[in-house]
Amino acid sequence: MAQTAQAQNNEASVKQLLEERDAEIKELMGPKGTEYDQEQRDKLKDIINGVIDYSAMARHALADTYDSLSQEEQEEFVDLFSTIIRDQSLNKLDIYRAEVKYEDITVDGNTAEVETLAQLEDVRTPVGYIMEYRTGSEQWVVTDMIIDDVSTADSYHRQFQKIIRQKGYDSLIETLRKRAAR
Fold this sequence. Notes:
Shape: globular
Mean pLDDT: 88
Helix content: 55-70%
Structural class: alpha+beta
Number of helices: 7
CATH topology: Nuclear Transport Factor 2, Chain: A
CATH architecture: Roll
CATH class: Alpha Beta
Radius of gyration: 18 Å
Strand content: 15-25%
Protein name: ABC transporter substrate-binding protein
Largest sheet: 5 strands, antiparallel
Order of helices and strands: HHHHHEEEEEHH
Number of strands: 5
CATH superfamily: Tgt2/MlaC
Strand order of the largest sheet: 1-2-3-4-5
């Protein structure tokens, strides 16, 4: 009985976190056609990306290569990786106006899988989240997003591994530096 109550509490806390984040984004965005100054764009970027664990996604994207890097190299990679993802999150802001329906939330210990359906006008997009509960910070974080059945972490993994195989890690990091500087 206690496990059931705990699971419901965790499922409820996951849903609450995502719903509050969604409401905060929508409130800041205002009505369709709103122009954003740099301060608003930065705040949107922080809210949109604030629950993402970039370090976990970066480790997945680099696989074994990540462990072979020095701590300084790992930190640079995570910083560049997060900058690129954070910047991409503002490319199509209208998607954050979508109505979100929570289809299923499954919690198993410190991990959760969330299935949602985002609908913007006539377009329905399945969006999933893989999440982990961080005991030290007492919060849920997103370690992967699955949009239209495509895993963000797996997609970067495939791209980065291909570059590493063909041109080496140094080529990948240089490409990321240029991309993040834009």
